Amino acid sequence: MMGTTQRAKTLSFRMRIGLALVLAMLMLLGGRLFHVQALDPAGNAQQAVSDRLRSVELPGARGDILDVHGRVMATSVERYHIIADQPQVDSYTVRDPDTGLRVPITVEESAAQIAEILEIDRQEVLEAMTGDGTNRYSMIDRSVTPEIRQKVMELRVPGIFSEPQSERAYPAGPVAGSIIGFIGADGPLEGVEAAQDEALTGESGQRIYEVGADGVRIPTATYEEVPATDGQDVKLTIDQDLQWYAQEAIAQKTNQYNAQWGNATVVDLREGSEGEILAMADSETVDPAQPGQTDELFRRPLALTQPFEPGSGGKSITFAMALEEGVMEPEDHYTVPYRYTWNGQTIQNARSHSEYEMTAAGIYARSYNTGTVLIGNQIDEQTRYDYMRKVGIGDPIDIGLGIEGQSALRPPEEWDARQPLTTQFGQGYEMTVLHAVQMYQLLANDGVKTPLRIVDAYVDPDGTEHPVETESERIFSSHTSEEMLKLMEGVVEYGSARGAAIEGYRVGGKTGTAEAAGAQGGFDGYTVNFVGLAPLDDPQFLVSVTVHRPAGRFGDWDLTDTFRDIMSYALSSYDVPPSGAEPEAYDGFVGEQQDYPW
Fold first, then answer.
1. In three state form, how does the secondary structure of 449-513 look?
2. Positive or negative: CA dihedral 69, 72, 74, 75
3. What b-and-e string marks burial along 134-168, b requiring 16 or more CB atoms within 10 Å of the CB?
4. How far apart (Å, rounded) are the C-alpha atoms in residues 434 and 264?
5. CA–CA separation, 278 and 292 (whole Å)
6. Using only C-alpha atoms, what is the Rg of the chain?
7. What DSSP character marks residue 586?
8. In sequence order, what are the beta bridge partners of 512?
9. Which residue has the higher pLDDT, 285 or 37?
10. Using one digit for the tens of pLDDT, what is the confidence trace for 347-373?
């Protein structure tokens, strides 16, 4: 009896302990329930909603890059990433159209179907779909077309979804490639794509929605959307067709002379469009879609990146300042020797010749160094330096591509014994193609310097255009500009660029050849340049042609045929009719005889 009673007491004690524990748990649960429902119901409900909310960024469309006529040179196209949510990937069934029965499709079979559509390895697809089964964002394939994406989605494989992407496309291919630039994995890298990225890039929006425990959006729950803002289009001054033509022409000339590189640049001189670059063509051009296939030298515009001594092209500033200072008129007479010594420094002309009685116009047309110095020495060194700086020599030049063309010109106090002479005929300093173009642009534009530019306007998504404004500056008088055009006409009529003539049009220009500095010091080649204008009655276009390190002997190179082809194309494309006006070039020699050996 005693044993039975003891066991009953023990059982009763254990029941009391168990009951006490149950009561304690109920009190804890009740307290928690009271806190949730009575003390902080709103906070807990909000936390629950927050846990279910998902946010998706809505990127704004990147703006297009357009040519001067509105033709698309760079645009964004719709592409998709194909993604696997591994925990959701599973086999599924489809209805057999013949039997009407549900047929199972395994994960392996799904992987094979997707691999066939995407044309990639089946095992790679299966690995991306399954993996360790925990990856919620496993990349199967990148940047597929909408058509391919549709085929994959039509399979309705559980756990497979697509993610929209924006990818750049370049309809014109390598036309103006170094100007347009390109985009890498880390974003825009070169050209307009990089320099104008802020304008091209839109503002992202946001989509917020609730999902259930299975990750699927709840249709009737929270849904908010802040729309994205698309980027602006950037309208360039480049004429796509003229750019293509210039690229073909300069590539042919560069190949003809087996040169290191060549450039052809066309600038608009028409009223209201002064300074707009219509073409800036290099002998080799990068394809923005495949930049890695092009040598690094040609991934940026050579007209900005490759400074050189201009040679005789630099004589134009010497003659312009002499006209402006009133120390020379085109028909002034000079005795021009083959060799000339000044302050112990001797210079000479490219070819030996007899002593000639010449006009200033003839010295310019035949590009004689000795005659140029006779004229330039009438102006003190500081004044000559100041004029060179006014036209932009020695200053960087920026046209809106994010990089500056460099020019080097030391002040007179740092010149060596020869530079007071050599700077008068384009040696002893460096500048780029665009510096030369800028100088001739202002000489052709009534002496007014209008900054060169390559961006014409910014265009809002609604089509509103915001033109780029520029400020002009007068450098030379109208008289100087008019006389310089006549001097340039002499170069084509009887001087060093007779091949630049175009029937029915008055054409002027200036040749230039200078030694090219070698990597190890000294000079080991040449840079040849010709800049021409037409029609001189009312200049409409400027064309510059430059070839660096051509093969062959000095004096064997002629760029006027390339100039003539490009200028003729521009005049025809823009319906500039021939005027048939008579030349106004001055005589080159004193007296009746005008035909002397070079």
1. ECCCECEEEEECCCCCEEECCCCCEECCCHHHHHHHHHHHHHHHHCCCCHHHCCCCCCCEEEEEE
2. positive
3. ebeebebbeebeeebbeebeeeebebbebeeeebb
4. 11
5. 26
6. 38
7. P
8. 529
9. 285
10. 999 999 999 999 999 999 999 999 999
